[in-house]
UniProtKB/TrEMBL annotation:
Name by which UniProt lists this protein: UDP-N-acetylmuramoylalanine--D-glutamate ligase
GO annotations of cellular component type: cytoplasm
Keyword Nucleus: no
Organism expressing this protein natively: Chryseobacterium formosense
The gene coding this protein: murD
UniProt-listed SUPFAM superfamilies: MurCD N-terminal domain (SSF51984), MurD-like peptide ligases, catalytic domain (SSF53623), MurD-like peptide ligases, peptide-binding domain (SSF53244)
Catalytic activity annotation: UDP-N-acetyl-alpha-D-muramoyl-L-alanine + D-glutamate + ATP = UDP-N-acetyl-alpha-D-muramoyl-L-alanyl-D-glutamate + ADP + phosphate + H(+)
Predominant location: cytoplasm
Compartments where located: Cytoplasm
Amino acid sequence: MKIVVLGGGESGCGAAYLAKKKGLEVFLSDKGAIKDHYKQFLTENEIEFEEENHDEERILNADWIVKSPGIPKKAEMINKIHEKGIRLSSEIEFASEFTDAKIIAITGSNGKTTTTSLIYYILKNDGLKVGLGGNIGYSFAKQVADENHEYYVLEVSSFQLDDIQNFRPYISLLLNLSKDHLDQYNYNYEEYALAKFRITENQENDNFFIYNKDDEMSKNILEKLEIKAKMIPFSTHEKLSEGGFVDGENIEVNLKDKFSMKIDELSLLGNHNVANSLAASIAGKILEINNESIRNSLMTFQAVEHRLEFVTEIDGVKFINDSKATNVNAAYYALESMKNPTVWIVGGVDKGNDYTEVEDLVKRKVKAIVCLGIDNQKIIDFFKDKKELIYSTSSMEEAVKTSKSLAKNGDTVLLSPCCASFDLFKSYEDRGRQFKEQVLKANGN
């Protein structure tokens, strides 16, 4: 069988490596330049590859093509693959065909990385043999090739779900839905939402689907779809006879037996993280992890980098890195959890953002807006009648200096950009690290 892998990043190299280990004929092609450490990996493992080119004839002669999630589904080469009827899969689809491990797959518009990391931590803390992968930055395919885990906890994006055929998690989890990546879904919110719901399309009645009962779009979609998996809801607004919910000062999970824990004992801050902790607790209970072990994990888990990450305090001003907030809904959660007057750093590549969602929070909680991007006009135009202090900056150094000069003792400086990072940075991680570097520099470190 001839396997062609498109894209020479983490997922592409992992898929090519798995194909090679399984004795399949494999060729990797990347239209851009491949990073040196990935080239070295491919060379060391004797995987044939090309960069800055697509050998169309060779690609279209494949039996199975594995596509990296970063390649747009409307790309010319993807259209040609579909025309020829060649099977086109994501790395998670490809790798899942070579393992019998139970997969816990997490998707949603916001909170995926935190919840995926938390579930992995709960399983690992309980002594289970578990791998962490998918959209979180570790290749699932490479782990399947090299390791022998009983469980995999995978963060899964809509782009990865677009290219599945048989992918069937033991537990699937859809945290929430908000308007994101609409440029890839014909600016149609329902089309994007349906892509997320593909996480459960191959599940059977011996599988589990955890969903957010408070989420409006999820409710609408569930009225139209027939889900075969056992559905378990969670809610922060209403008590449930089965599932996870908030009861006064506690989170509760009611399945075969009950789990209860005080909200103020959770290591993660913010209302949205109460929901994430509920979802993770349900997964733990399905896997029959005992209450004490789940409680211990929820108390000791450390927040992931770039997601409401405390950086330092300078002259009584807290600096928070939430660079992973690449859409308005994610920034909403960050702003909602702010307790003090906030200087908000926002901006980047706009993905069709509608800022009305955060308008009220900005009026109540934000004392100044510092725009960070090549083109800040849309943000300035939206907020100019609502906030007196709005500044435009075009580098992280300038944004941090401006924010520091505006913040007083007791304030918070929050980087929660609402936007993609690619105008000024390589990635949201690069943006977050530069923020931390500039903040520590401003503190004389």
